[in-house]
Structure formats: C-alpha cells, structure tokens
Specification:
alpha/beta; single chain; 39% helix; 8 strands; binds 1,3-dihydroxyacetonephosphate
C-alpha cells in the first residue's frame, strides 16, 4: 500500500444490495489497488463489509463507538472491543455531526478515545469549527480546545481529521491556503502539547471530491482525506484514492 490515507465515511447510508454492489466495484477498481484506504459503513453493515473485505487491502472503520468500554447493560451501545472483534481498524470519534446532533461532550469523547485505544484500534478524532467560529476569527482556539481532549491518550497512536463544519456536505471547500494553515497549526499543537510525533497523520475532510483531491492531497501538511458523499460513488472515490496514491 502506498500514499496518503483515504477513509470513506458512509454516514447513515447504505442497504445490503447497494453495499454489495459498491464494495464489489471498489474491489475491482484499479484506482483503489495499492491505495491506503478504509471505509466506515453504518454499524448494521460492518459484518457484511468485513466479510466482503476479508483478504483485501481495504480496511474497515466504524463511525462511532460507545464511551462504555466493558460489556454490560448499555442498551443500544456498541463497544470498541466489538468493533475490533468484527475487524475494524479505525474508529471515528467526535465527528461534528455527533457533536452537533448528539451533544457529545469532551468528557464522553475522552472516554471514547480511551476505549478505542484500549481495544487496539486507531481513533480518527475529528475537529473543526463552525461558520460562525470561522468568521469570528476564533477558529484556532476552537480547534485547540477540541485537540486538548487528546491528552487522555498519553501519546497513543491517533489520526486527527480536520473537518471545518461549514465545508461538510455543503460543496464549499476550504481553500488550499486555509487547509494548510489549520493543518500546520494542528501539527504544531499536537507536537507541543500532546506528545504527538512528526509523523502524526492529519486528514482533511469537507467536500473532498475528484476535482479537488489532487490539490488538497498534494499539501505536505495533509496526511490524507476523510470523504463523505464522494465515498458512495466508486468513480469519485477511486479518483480521490488515485490522487492519494501519487503522494508519499
Ligand atoms: P462530505 O465529503 O460529504 O462533505 O463529508 C465530509 C465528512 O463529514 C466526512 O466525515
């Protein structure tokens, strides 16, 4: 596998038949061959995806995880060790849609991060400012506050995803200069405050498409892409993977 990491976040999309068709076309696509790539389907379809992806290079991720680490009476929850059991490698934590619709607190996110690492999985911790926070100029402080939750990890391996909320699903992409500025800031903050290493992977997410992937992934500060809508279309996703493969 070569190049930067691309993770497809399916969000709340998919059905058995559509997933089968999409995953089979991904497995056949030359654009995805050799790419460092993962998909994160809804919980209900992780088992299906794991079976289809067995023996392939495409890795599996989950979109969320319970803050409770141990098995028990937590109706509706899915634990990190269950995600490991079905073959996940990555787990999204703190996606802006979880923060917004489910009011996930920093304390909960800290527990989720710890549970993911304890299960031997890699958290993909999402940060990013709203449009109002961007326009007020306070976006660095917002991102720094979100990153402070990572101190619970004591330097354990983690991927960070910068997803400006105003660029998610809106078709609005942050400019290459805006992305580079925040990515450099995140890397510097992680290095200084959270025992991060120079090799820390910071993904960009927010309307990444076939036509902007080259420019975004060419940035040295960008370690890969977290892709929503375009990950549901094999041609678009393949072109993003192709852009990622060209990078080191
Ligand atoms: P879109 O690519 O659809 O903007 O979604 C980005 C995202 O939220 C990925 O987690």
């Amino acid at each position: 596998m070569s190049g930067k990491l691309v993770i497809g976040n399916w969000k709340m999309n998919g059905r058995l038949a559509a997933n089968l068709a999409l995953i089979e076309s991904m497995l056949e696509s030359p654009a995805l061959q050799q790419a460092r790539v993962a998909i994160a389907p809804p919980f209900a379809y992780l088992g299906q995806a794991a079976t289809l992806l067995a023996d392939s290079h495409i890795m599996l991720g989950a979109q969320d995880v319970s803050a409770f680490a141990a098995d028990g009476a937590y109706t509706g929850e899915v634990s990190a060790s269950m995600l490991a059991d079905v073959g996940c490698r990555y787990v999204l934590v703190g996606h802006s849609e979880r923060r917004q619709y489910f009011r996930e607190s920093d304390a909960q996110l800290g527990q989720k991060l710890q549970a993911v690492v304890a299960a031997g999985l890699i958290p993909v911790y999402c940060v990013g400012e709203t449009l109002a926070e961007r326009e007020s100029g306070a976006y660095r402080e917002v991102v720094a506050a979100q990153l402070s939750v990572l101190s619970v990890l004591n330097g354990a391996e983690c991927v960070v995803a910068y997803e400006p909320v105003w660029a998610i699903g809106t078709g609005k992409v942050a400019s290459v200069a805006q992305i580079d500025e925040v990515h450099q800031y995140i890397r510097a903050t992680l290095l200084q405050c959270h025992g991060g290493s120079d090799s820390i992977c910071v993904l960009y997410g927010g309307s990444v498409k076939a036509d902007n992937a080259d420019a975004i992934l060419a940035l040295e500060s960008v370690g890969g892409a977290l892709v929503g809508g375009a990950s549901l279309d094999v041609n678009s996703f393949g072109q993003i993977c192709q852009a990622a493969k060209k990078t080191v």
